[in-house]
Structure formats: structure tokens, C-alpha cells
Amino acid sequence: MNNSQAYPIGTPGQKWGEAERLQWRATTTIKREYQQEVVPKIKALENEFVVEQYGALSYDEERYPLFSIKSKNWQANKPTVLITGGVHGYETSGVHGALKFMANEAKRYEQHFNIIAAPCVSPWGYETINRWNPNAIDPNRSFYADSPAEESANLMALVASLPQEVLVHIDLHETTDTDETEFRPALAARDGIDYEADSIPDGFYTVGDTELPQLEFQAAVIESVAKVTHIAPADANGQIIGSDVVQHGVILYPMKKLGLCGGVTNCQYGTTTEVYPDSPKVTDEECNDAQVAAVVGALDYVLKNHRT
């Protein structure tokens, strides 16, 4: 299947230039409001945590401030946990799952960890229900020096400002039907390559780091989430989204090489979650709960098994 035939923007076999990027941006619209749906939930946590603005997006700095939520009693002798959500703004449960964990579960882990969450890394993407930022750049392929994505650069600066190395990083994502109907065809068109159709896995899975898989840790996350929602099976080729399934519900990516948010730290324990919100078997709230369960499973594993 040829990308240029499937996607209405661009010329066959040619990468997009500025004109195509502007044409694409003109197709985006505000569908929900960050200041109404997300910021109030962040502000509601101010009594229990330190809520700080760590940046703002230049597209509209007043509309798109970036917030972190972190432990009040930050101590040098505690390991640090980073939770990120909304790196792809359209992946709703990443945002609201991070907020739900902070509201309902984080306090019971604070005696063991310093916790910091960046619940909505890409608020423009959240509002337009988009994978990219307004410049047709994917923030989750842009975590590297001199990043072209403001969203990624701001988060990298936040991580660099932390007083200790991060031990645990959980990056909360979704895989949706629109990945196949919109975002992958758009990516192929943008890059001037052929679009290869793929299938969307029905269920939750995790992506570990090829360089440090921590498969027992990944298994603990899967086990925790399985109490809330179903785990994605491998396809007929033993794969999920084109990557080999290395154990039940787990695939691996080279995080730093691909510029993924999962490689933004040098953490010992890292996982990227992938919830499937379009399944008829789940509700939106169950998707949020699956994200919470993933963080809980990760932290419980580290508490039980990590030795300094």
C-alpha cells in the first residue's frame, strides 16, 4: 500500500517541506481543553505535593504551561521515580493514569521513594488529540541533544535538574486504532516512504529497553495490570506491532537510539506501557486504572527486589 495514495497531503516519494507541514497543521482543531480537563487535576494536588511549572510551549505559553508534581519531602537517601504521561498527547490514559496514581497511590510510596510526575508532556497534542506537535514532529522520537521538539527539550531539562539519578521510570502510553488509520499513514507520507499496513494488538503490553530489558520487572508490571485488563497476545508471527514478543506482553525497543522518552534517563528499571483504549472489553476508567496498576506493579517489584 503506497502512503501517498492513502494520505491526502504530500507528493509520492517526497518528504514533506514547510508547505506540507503547514497544510497538515491546518487540518488540526482543538477538541478538548488542557486548562479544563488536566490543569485543575494537577492543581488539586498542591496540598499533598510540590506542583511546579517546568516550562511552557511557545505555541501559546499561557495556554500550554508544563507542570511537574513531586514529593514534598525529597531526600537524598531515597531513590527517585519518574512517571511521564502524555508524551503523545492523544494517549489519554497516560495523562489521567499518571494523575490518578499521584492522587490515590503515590503517598504510600513516598516513605521509600522520591516521586516526580510530568503528567502531560504534550498539551497541544492533548487538545488536538494528536501524536505530533504543531510542527509535525513526534516528541517521542525527539529525546536527544538539541531536540527539535519543545516538549522533549523541556522534559529533558526537568530530568537534568533532578538532584539524583532516576532509578525507576514508567512512561505511560496507549496504542490506538488511529495509529493505523491516521498516524502511521501520516508518518509515511511525511517521510516520503511507502506505508506498510499493520495490525493493532488488542490488549495491554509493555516496551522494555533492548539494552536493559529487566524482564522480571516487566513481568511484574504485566502481572499487576492483568488484574485490571487483558494483556495483548502475540500475532501469528509471534510479534506485537512488528517486534518480537520476548515474553508474555513484552517487546523491546532501543530507547536511546530511537530518541524515546523511555531513554530520557539512565534508569535501572524502565518500562513504557501501552494501553489499548479502543477495545470493546474496557472503559476509559479501566484504562486509567491499568496505568495506575502498571506503576504500582513496577514500584512493588523494585521495593521487593532492588538492592543498593
Automatic annotation (TrEMBL):
It comes from Vibrio plantisponsor. The keyword Lyase does not apply. InterPro entries: AstE_AspA_cat, Peptidase_M14. It comes from the Bacteria. This is M14 family metallocarboxypeptidase. Belongs to the peptidase M14 family. Keywords: Hydrolase, Metal-binding, Zinc. Its cofactor is Zn(2+). The keyword Signal does not apply. Pfam families: AstE_AspA_cat. Residues 30-308 form the Peptidase M14 domain.
